């Protein structure tokens, strides 16, 4: 609980700070170009004189927003397919085939293709990540539904004449909430890292939006000139945020007794 609480505080501070920073904090200042880290600029400045500390905070806030949209979208897809799988054997066979089909496609390849199809941007990237991060969680939800289907109270509900969909929603869904919540949280760090990866490749967010992937991509041109801080601090900040989500998901997994993070992601 202590580690989970600290992770929540860290994530909330980063997100709120990045969202509340004024737009003027990342404006160019040619008088302050290429400054190394100092008290006035803890993360240094870039080739346009922009404060890298402010840009990093805004980029992390954008990454968290994309991760939230993608993780919730992937969790919703997994939940709907898991509930549908419990409605009958025929539906279960079809959904199992769909899950196996998506799992057979290389993850990053499908993500890049979908991001290209949706045209990039924040909604397109979030949708692409959501459509590629649901299969493992859907498989876990489906397995839980199959296990619940053999419970005694489920058989009693069927004898009372309740429909399969009503049984799935009224009696099975409450048992899936902890598993689903932990699964969505564990999708978060992967969503953030993949958003940074495809943005780094130029298929994600637009250059006008502050994002960690854009910052890292732009910094590659200046590392040979000794401007190491352009990539080091944003990359370290991204790692800390991703680790915080992983710690939070692992803490909730331990408290609720749900499956491991490897099973979910």
Automatic annotation (TrEMBL):
Gene3D superfamilies for this protein: MetI-like
Bilayer topology term: Multi-pass membrane protein
Subcellular location: Cell membrane
Keywords, in A-Z order: Cell membrane, Membrane, Transmembrane, Transmembrane helix, Transport
Stretches that traverse the bilayer: 64-85, 180-206, 226-248
PROSITE patterns (alphabetical): ABC_TM1
GO CC terms in record: plasma membrane
GO BP terms: transmembrane transport
Domain ABC transmembrane type-1: 60-249
Predominant location: membrane
Stated family: Belongs to the binding-protein-dependent transport system permease family.
Record-given protein name: ABC transporter permease
Organism: Paenibacillus taichungensis
Lineage of source species: Bacteria, Bacillati, Bacillota, Bacilli, Bacillales
